[in-house]
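Researcher: Please translate sequence to structure tokens.
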Amino acid sequence: MPPPPTRRTFLQLTGLSAAAVAIGVSAPAGADATPGRPVPSGAFALGVASGDPRTDGFVLWTRLAPTPLVTDGHGGMPADPVPVQYEVAEDSQFKQVVRRGLAIATPELAHAVHPEVRGLRPDREYFYRFRAGSELSPVGRTKTLPVQGSQFTFATASCQAWYHGYFTAHRDIARRAPDAVFFLGDYIYEYGIVAGDNLWREGVSVGPEHGVEIETLEQYRLRYSLFKTDPDLQAAHAVAPWFLVWDDHEVQNNYGADNSLYGIPPELFVHRRAVAYRAFYENVPVALDSLPHGPDGQLYRRYDVGSLARVHLLDTRQYRDPLPVDEADRVSEQRTIMGAKQEKWLYDGLRHSPATWNVVAGGVVLSAITDDRTEQWDGYPANRRRVLEAMGQAGTSVMLTGDIHRHVASELKLDFANPDSRTVGVELVCSSVGSNGDGTDTDQYAQDWLQHPYVKLYNARRGYVHSTLTRSEMTTEFVNFPYIQADANAEPRVVATFRTPADDPRLEAL
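Model: Translation complete:
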């Protein structure tokens, strides 16, 4: 048997060239904008999106897929490169166009493009659209970040199992049009979708190709296509720029680093990670810096919302130590869920933050709940202590997490075992968009959480979180829905509202 490929050779083995990547961001000067053959009708069936905003621009995204659910994962596109034009304007009618450009959608990247627009004005609303041949995309709205900033609104969402229910949360996020959306992982799920087993979304069906656990690049692409056909997800993408991190189901349940919990040897599991990470890049609006190199992707990154907020986006999957084998291993000072390099990066960013608020967004819950929740930060208590100490030396900290399919509001204690310990921040845990179906207001796990005086809310229905930051306070609404399985028409209800003063990191119920 030949030796397994090195990380350096993964891109070549999967047929991805540097040229294909580069032209998917920006076409060479003088490139022809006319396609070599007619572009199929309905090429923008997966919608448009923007992400990773900065003070002078953002990333735009679309993927040409006129028939998104064909089983080869190419969305019905021929195996030809297609020039895609884009426009950015200050008005939705495109009378004041401020940027035009061209990117090339190639079959190597499933005909996705990721143009990065720069040179715009800060703290401004912009509109954008794409054209491929005679096909015109829907119009998207996005915003640049402020240089100073006095108010910033954002929604947090996670865990959108399409097969468990409708994306009503995304419908309401689109209605409210926040300044940004934080998506905290589990954008797709890898499980096989089987009617009568886990297909709870009423009124839909899927073919047998969706009934197996996904493993190949083509299968990951197809699964993204299925989820992204949802009109409410498309609407939420089209209304605001997104900050995205991944958790486990973008690859496989409860994986960590090169380790699968389902018996796949590490030298083979990195193949799975490589194709999963690539499909993630192809289907979401992240910058070129986040393009994976085989099974390695640079997803942690930092943004400043003027001096109002510093945002850190974490990767708590790719670098984590394996799950502990015993209690001595669990409490070891050397254990990390972030890896040494990312830890240093986070602590430096917090230490030197100029902002009133320090927002840290990751996939899994930080608060201490039970010692047997080792897949969360409870499995990495020494790393958690280091993070809390760094938060305690910075301005008011806000941790945004998801994963557990429950709404939780928690105060972050420097020492969770000591009720009198200083509170260094708050944690806002958003419930799932779709995972686990309708849910209930409470369930059998409520006592695990509510036994702790620092946990101020536990709710087990589906929904999202909406927050508003100002110089003086943060106001947070936990929004849920009475049902999601039957249809997407349930009315939102605010199950709890909290105020957090900028100089006093606590959760005050309103």
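Researcher: Any highlights?
Model: Residues 9 and 163 are 35 Å apart (CA to CA).
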